[in-house]
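Dear support,

Our group has been running a series of protein-ligand predictions, and this particular one with 1-deoxymannojirimycin is the one our PI (initials K.S.) wants archived with full inputs and outputs. We had some confusion internally about which version of the output was final, so please treat the block below as the authoritative record. The input we submitted was:
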Amino acid sequence: MPVATLLPFTATPNRKSASPTSFRLTEKFILLLVFSAFITLCFGAIFFLPDSSKLLSGVFFHSSAVETNTRTGPDSSDPGSAGNDERVLAKIKKDHEKALLEAKDTLQKRPDEIKQDILNDKDKVAKESLGQGGNDVNKLPFVEYHRPPGATGHEPEDPEAKDRRAKIKEMMKHAWGSYRRYAWGSNELRPVSKQGHSSNLFGSIKGATIVDALDTLYIMEMFEEFDAATDWIEKNLDFNVNAEVSVFEVNIRFVGGLLSAYYLSGKEVYRRKAVELGEKLLPAFKTPTGIPWALLNLKSGIGRNWPWASGGSSILAEYGTLHLEFMHLSKLSGNPDFAQKVMNIRKVLNRLDKPQGLYPNYLNPNSGQWGQHHVSVGGLGDSFYEYLLKAWLMSDKTDEEGKKMYYDALQAIETNLMRKSSSGLTYIAEWKGGLLEHKMGHLTCFAGGMIALGADGAPGDKTGHQMEQAAEIARTCHESYARTALKLGPEAFRFDGGVEAIATRQNEKYFILRPEVIETYMYMWRFTHDPKYREWGWEAVQALEQHCKVEGGYSGVRDVYASTPNHDDVQQSFYLAETLKYLYLLFSDDDHLPFDHWVFNTEAHPLPKNRNQA
Ligand code: DMJ
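Confirmed final output from the archive:
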């Protein structure tokens, strides 16, 4: 079709320059160009002006949305339309309020938390597009993240508590800052010689202090340090090592630390790393009974037990301290294996006869029979009892089996191990084939906190009785500190040979920055608000500052009865994970990591209770 026919009104008959034909053609061509540019501009404006979709729907898809509504809903002349309008208005109001709340929530978040929310949303959309729950086996299932209450706190109103809490944060800064300066990436710090320290408990896995300290950094709002730790973990934390590790230690410090960091911060990297490490630990359960080995080569998956453990036995406090972390691993990975493994441990235990109702420290993973009949609520036994109680609490009190096992065990401990000294100090002795050794370990002092935590659910009106027991144990453990020259507690203290709460053997006089006594003060403070627990905690702070603080961090001491400290030159990772965290919580208000929502693993890593996981 000729252009002239298309554009009759563009003809300019008076033009003189070129021949009429050629002139007309050129002009028509130019006019065609101008016209098509104009049309393009109009379309461009429609498509690209802000809110063009609304314009489009209004212009081209005339009121289709409105029509859809009127077709499905009552006609405007319908007598019910007034009610409909109200419903629509109510919905608009509700949506508006929801949006306001969300905006308020977002404003309260840190930039990295907002970033994390965006990543979570993206992940959710990606998973949804993969199909229900996600089908990619190499990826973890989508888990909606909700931060449980009390992940961070606020300054206490009480001025003394406020100052003391600030002081603990300063201590954390010194411990962490020194580690960062002198031992970054090593497992622990040698604060006197100012260099890294590696414990063979972790094989060649590195960074124990970083992972153990993560949640303490978070709850103290040391976010810059937390971010530096996260960065190190993303780039350097590697579990593909050809080395033997302690399954228990790696679980409580690394898996526990990573899980807590995930629940506090919502950062996916922690969930991924926790599950990756958990999977590496699973071969430890390949024994005839499913009772795991103590030691495991992470590369070969070959396990064995400590050579010193009675007849090749596994240790109660080690295989009995996996439950909390493994239940969370199943939840976060969608892999039921973790939960099955730890539930099977209970099955094995429940089939066995228990001497006087007690659980011996040693159990052979091949035969499923007890080794030596030694029983302890300290080293080799301690956290097994703690995890029975906390499994019940963490399950929002649905794990009746854990509950029964805990209260039955506690009754047997009270009957057979708990004693009173002649001056009236309550202690928990060790039991060796029916004979009592009147010694209590520093480790055993955690039991004051545990008994207080469980007292509320004690069967048969025993709540008051158990609270008294807990208070008495706290007092005894305080005495073990008060009766030393440095005002720090020995590794073990005795109630025989004319002494009470005093270490008599040279190899029991050391203090390695352990948390258990302060842990018990923290629980007792929360349940009683008796000021003496804060005072006792403060005494410990002063002793730590005076005798353990050195230029390059904090060090353990070799003899708490010597008038001047002889430093052991190790800053244990649990000092940052536990001792400083429990001190900080002791001087915080109760709504910071509230017991209603959190349980602490045995390395003081907070894990949410089931009620938070709707
Ligand atoms: C920590 O690693 C844990 O608390 C464990 O349960 C026992 N010992 C240390 C601290 O003393």
